[in-house]
Amino acid sequence: MPKREDIQKVLVIGSGPIVIGQAAEFDYAGTQACKALREEGFEVVLVNSNPATIMTDKHMADRIYVEPLTVEILSRIIELEHPDSILPTLGGQTGLNLAMELAESGVLEKNGVRLLGCNVDSIRKAEDREAFRRTMMEIGEPIVPSGVVENLEDAHALAKEIGYPVIVRPAYTLGGTGGGIAATPEELDEIAQNGLRLSRVGQVLIERCIAGWKEIEFEAMRDASGCAITICSMENVDPVGIHTGDSIVVAPAQTLGEAELSMLHSATLKIITALGIEGGCNIQFALNPDSFEYALIEVNPRLSRSSALASKATGFPIAKVATRVAVGYRLDEILNTVTGTTYACNEPAIDYVVLKFPKWPFDKFVHAERRLGTQMKATGEVMSIAVSFEAALMKAVRSAEIGCNRLWLKELDSLDEEALFQILADCDDRRIFVVAELLRRNVTVDALYDLTRIDRWFLRKLQGLIELERELAEQPLDDALYTRAKTFSFPDRVIEELSGAKVERSRRASFKMVDTCAAEFDAVTPYYYSTWDEDCEVAPIQGEKILVFGSGPIRIGQGIEFDYCSVHCVWAAKQCGYDTIIVNNNPETVSTDFDTADRLYFEPLTPEDVRDIVKAEGVTKAIVQFGGQTAIKLAGYLADMGVEILGTSADSIDAAEDRERFDALLTKCGIPRPAGDTVFTAKQAAEAAARLGYPVLVRPSYVLGGQGMAIAFNEEDVTEYMEIVNRNLQEHPILIDKYLQGKEVEVDAICDGEDILIPGIMEHIERAGVHSGDSISVYPTRTISGRTKLTMVKYTAAIAKELQVKGLVNIQFVVYNDEVYIIEVNPRSSRTVPYISKVTGVPMVELATRCVLGEKLKDLGYGTGLFPEGQYHAVKVPVFSFEKLHDLDTQLGPEMKSTGEVLGLASDYRQALLKGVLAAGYRNRQGNCGVLLTVRDADKQELIPIADRIAALGYDLYATAGTAKVLNSNMIATNVVRKIGEGTPNIIDLLDSGCIGYVVSTDTKGRIPSLDSVKIRRKAVERSIPCFTSLDTAEAFVGCLELAIVEKDLELVDITKL
Amino acid sequence: MQERDSAYLFLEDGRRFEGVALGKKGVAVGEVVFHTFGSNPHQLLTTPAFCGQLLAFTTPLVGNCGVNFSDLQSESVQAAGLIVRECCQIPSNFRNEMPLPDFLLENHVVGIEGVDTRALTKHLRTHGSLRGAIVSSPADASQLLNELRRPAAPLSRPAGATPPPPTGNEKYHVVVVDLGCCKALLDHLRQLSCRITMVSPEIPAQELLTLSPDGVLFSDGPETLTPSPTSLVLAKDLLQSDLPLLGVDAGHQLLAVAAGCSLIPLPVGHRGPNQPVTALDGSSTFTTSQYHGLVVDGSTVDPGRVRILCVSRNDGSVEALSYRDGQALSIQYLPGVVPDSTGRLTELEQFCSAMDQRKEAVRHA
After folding, report:
1. What is the mean pLDDT of residues B126-145?
2. Could you tell me if B293 and B266 are in contact, meaning their C-beta atoms sit under 8 angstroms apart?
3. What does the pLDDT read at residue B1?
4. Is the CATH number of domain A9-116 3.40.50.2300?
5. For residues A107 and A78, is the Cβ–Cβ distance under 8 A?
């Protein structure tokens, strides 16, 4: 069955901004899908609100709309573009839900659009809890005793019938948002209420808690002819109860016998057949560890995070194959490009062990609740490949960039056994390290099994690692011991640290290929992982080659934008005639697709791992500036190894990061910066702050995304922040700067060592103090004078020249009292590069890469200096995942908190802002509700005109006593609300009553969860009430409300035509 | 950790792999074959089709779940030796009855652990079928190589699995011509309500017919380029009868040769549960489990007598044949019991329906 003839134009829906539970994997999936569709000759219309994606690149689709992902907007795009089909299965839960809504509302039928890859019925069967239960019962597949309820009363009745503890899951949400385990009716009250509200259809599933069973996943694929295969099995190291996104996962499953595996294999094929899916599907099972009893947990009739993992784990390009299946091909017609002789109907065989390790944000969010459960909390993940479980785990741990090179977490050393057991009981993210620590203290495998239900096989593997650590510490480091440590993938650094001996002759890794078939067929995949075998399958590339780095796991502050930059760097270098080698460890990304670079090494981004690649390939040149801080950190080591860093040198990078050198540089260029000092202790910090005058900015040097950065308004704040910062040993001094509350402006420039090109200057809506990643960013600037811009261009040129920048540089300015200060220089790619590239049409990474490779800007056709401003206004709005991270204060500050971003684009600024705000998920609740205002004293005067405008829009105003007093005395009628602790009804009851539509809360005292202001903001998150923590954001939003434009009047922009 | 004794794997072309001893210490000689799936070697080690072979696993971690005796495919270990990268010492699974290393010792299986089985697989893939020797006790390497290079002595045919006892309520009586039948196949027959009588391939057709079977199944087992003359006579005679026939694996090869086809070695053997097979009528491709190194030469199939039904999607080799208008079938792979995702009837189901039809015809006659 070849390609369907009735398809000409396909609409692809992306997954929108990166949030916890829906990350870069859908950029990878969408990019593969768009490529596959275009290769088939179809016209592709793409909609995605996330500008940091590769899929929204001009050459990925024929029409690209970076628009809010709402039914209204999609309906209009359908009416405008007349696609005949929609591919809904590659845009995550967002894409699938939208497709469902479009189908249910009749838009598809009216416009003659059909769904590819699945139909409404199959989606409903998989996604609607009740329909799913019915379908599974029909085909005899077991499910967990459960029921769906639509109100709290029924929830209690059902829970009583099933028996506590019960798991609560809202229907149609991603990453398990709003779910939880309830052990008592009281807990059920809270969790079910929350879940009912968050579910798109107001339903929650109550089910028997089978915590402790094994959690096994299968990735499967089926075509229209009925041919179905599994791609691979995956086993969660953590049992059921911890979200699979927060679990360590191995592939293939390790502790299941052939009997259990083939049972679940058959069940998988039966289910995908019963659902009639034409494409990929992910099925999660719970398996009783003591019998053949199993139960289905979930079926995703679409590509998922696990599909991306399975795809990278096997080399089987799931998204590409799923797309081709959706347009009519049979699996036995789709050639496996890895072998060139076999077809996609061949189930992949794996001759290695793959391990996925989550990346959590708790290093940044020290106050957030770090307990793991049914709601996913990880922002990203790493994957490792090895020939043993031990080596895979060691590689993954150091790939995660959590300051660990082995299973040892320093902070656990000081805890007693009781405290460690408590952490295990709480299931927090440090679990694996706690298990290791307890094994180190001779707690038995059986005791740990009883507590954790982590299979004894895994525990024994951990025990083996601890045993080896002990041998290294106690025995002389001879060849045999060293070799064993290497086969377990212990880095030399760790071996030396443990043994106290110097590694005399460092052994180098050899490399093997990921080939989908366990070497059964000759394969040509340029996709490698390291082992310690004699047999090495890598022959160095012969031509001129360049090593490029990915940016590791997605984390707050280093997201998908950097993958965009790495991938574009690879493409540009290829265009310039170089062979490219990429190293990365993130399975969700486009950079780790084996056909992105000429060669892919799936390895940790550490000096030793990279060294082995450099040696195996005979690399002499590398580019580090596109892989975020992860790659930058490697620059020094590479230079020491004799690898030439192309572009900005390691020394220049250091000059921008080292406080003293940076100060000297600015002085030399005559550029002012806010006054500051460097300190080590809390006492020194307080003294420096007093000298500079409050408020001050406190931050460690060499950090990412403003980690550990805070604004202190008084000595108490300084003490609190210094305590947090000093929890980790600081190698570098802590910086205290005068905090200038001015306008923040950001510039990304390309430099060739002589000239610069600034594609665009961006202005932040929030005043300095809110991290640039969390600010609403506007291009072109609106309030910056021509003269100020010229100053910035001049400063940028001076710094670029002084630092000898070749490539990209990102500079942040603050404009205070008409004076331009520099606050930060990053001689590397930045978060804003993808979006500015898209809205200005300047291919920034390509130009930067060409400069890095020696070309000159004046020859590249985009001119030099400041690039002319475009006609369109682009507003980048940050998106947060606050509802997933309990106890995290939502107050924005110098430490970045957003996980993703969206873009609003229009020829009118206010429309662009409105679109950005809509895309970020702020619902426009026209009137009929109240707005709660509670602001710090410093903001009270400024609040008055804003409150006036809100009242004029017809909203009722509520405020705490102090704020209300100021407003009422200014003739703005405001209801006074009791604070927490002043009796009921108080402010929390008001939020619970459902009559508040928006909250403005700017009280910034501390981040401790027990504070009232934090409680109010958390309550707003729980109730899904938009909460503005800066008056600037609030004012901008009021401007949107005043605009009185409805979605159907919004201008739609095809960015390929910009 | 205690040091373990070294062991070596020698191939007839001189390639040598190093590892440590696993199971019984000694020397094991045989054809080296690799299997691309699975992590529980006890099943394959006891499958008669692997008789006399040195079985290598591409999966790096094996034996994690230990041995469960009900999984064994015949009464004894049939393979000559085991080659793995890492063998689990302390298994973890609720069905575990014995760790794999103990099972190997108890069954006198010579094994080797710590081998780069991917490098071995690549070597076998490029150099074709090779004989080899696992050596875990002192031995003279050059003597060993000379021995490996001499043609292998023919192996005696292993006995197949023991059929389950009849219940008395079975619908069909199937005579299984035992070429080294695995237990799974007998279990499948049992699930489809078959009473099973095992016979040797050396018996005359007349004698077999006195058992009055409803159908005859030629089982799987070790392959041979030259089936014994008496077994060929049996297959030819039965092909001329009106009895429903099903040949599986070695049984398929025997029926094909009896019908005038020749066997040839595959460049790379099919060994694994992920072998895709395509029906030539264009209806479907399905995944099958196979273990063979020989194959029916498609160019020797006489279209007047035999029809090719299915071929391997990977290399186009013959996978399924039909004789007497489909009343007799033979397949290179192991048949399933229930229809797969494509809804295709399995060959066992087709065999049963052929038995039904014949019974019906006999009754009407």
Report:
1. 86
2. yes
3. 47
4. no
5. yes
Quick one: average pLDDT of A307-316? Answer: 96
- How long is chain A? 1058
Task: State yes or no: cis peptide before A985, omega within 30 of 0.
Answer: yes
Query: Alpha helix (H) ranges present in A276-370?
Result: 305-314, 318-326
Dmax over Cα atoms in chain A, in whole Å? 83
Asked whether the predicted pLDDT for residue A1007 surpasses 70, the reply is no
Give the tens place of pLDDT for each residue, B223-246: 999 999 999 999 999 999 999 999
User: What is the widest separation between alpha-carbon atoms in chain B?
Assistant: 75
Q: What is the pLDDT of residue B282?
A: 87
- CA torsion through residues B161, B162, B165, B168, sign: positive
CB contact A446 to B (< 8 Å): no
CA distance A530 to A547: 16
Q: Which amino acid is at A769?
A: G
Answer whether A1053's CB lies under 8 Å from A872's CB. yes
Q: Do A259 and B64 touch (CB under 8 A)?
A: no
CATH architecture, domain defined by B172-364: 3-Layer(aba) Sandwich (3.40)
Q: What is the ipTM of this complex?
A: 0.95
Task: Give the span between the Cα atoms of B189 and B185, in whole angstroms.
Answer: 6
Query: Tokens in use for A807?
Result: 């490539």
**What confidence category does residue B152 fall into, taking pLDDT thresholds of 50, 70 and 90?**
confident
Chain B window 107-166: which residues touch A at a Cβ cutoff of 8 Å? 116-119, 121-122, 125-126
pLDDT of residue A959 exceeding 70: yes
Contacts of B272 in chain A (CB under 8 A): 349, 520
pLDDT of residue A432: 97
| B154 against A772, higher pLDDT | A772
Task: Give the homologous superfamily in CATH for domain A924-1046.
Answer: Methylglyoxal synthase-like domain (3.40.50.1380)
Please name the CATH architecture into which domain B6-149 falls. Answer: 3-Layer(bba) Sandwich (3.50)
Q: Residue A521 and residue B268: Cβ atoms within 8 Å?
A: yes
Helix (H, G, I), strand (E, B) or coil at A994: coil
Candidates B274, B290, B319, partner chain A, best to mutate (most A CBs within 10 A): B274
- Residue A340 φ/ψ region, left for φ over 0, alpha for ψ in the -120 to 50 degree band, beta for the rest: left
CATH among 1.10.720.60, 3.40.50.20, 3.40.50.1000, 3.40.50.970 for A510-630: 3.40.50.20
Which range among A168-182, A561-575, A953-967 shows the weakest confidence by mean pLDDT? A168-182
pLDDT of residue A820: 96
Residues of A in contact with B184 (CB under 8 A): none
What is the arithmetic mean of pLDDT over A502-522?
93
Mean pLDDT of chain A: 92
CB-CB: which of A227, A289, A533 is closest to B119? Answer: A533
A231-257 pLDDT, tens digit each: 999 999 999 989 999 999 999 999 999
Pairwise CB contact (< 8 Å): A226 & B343:
yes
| Fold assignment, A743-870 | D-amino Acid Aminotransferase; Chain A, domain 1 (3.30.470)
What is the token pair recorded at B246?
């099903």
Cα–Cα distance for residue pair A578/A597, rounded to 1 Å: 10
Is the CB of residue A585 less than 8 Å from the CB of residue A641? no
A69 touches chain B (CB under 8 A): no
Please check the confidence at residue A1012 and state whether its pLDDT lies above 80.
yes
Q: How close does chain A come to B37, measured CA to CA in Å? A: 6
* Average pLDDT, integer, range B64-83: 96
Residue A1008 clears pLDDT 80, i.e. is over it: no
In the predicted model, what is the mean pLDDT of residues B13-33? 94
Spatial contact of B113 and B86, defined as CB atoms under 8 Å apart: yes
Annotation: CATH topology of A354-499: Carbamoyl Phosphate Synthetase; Chain A, domain 4 (1.10.1030)
Query: Any idea how long chain B is?
Result: 365
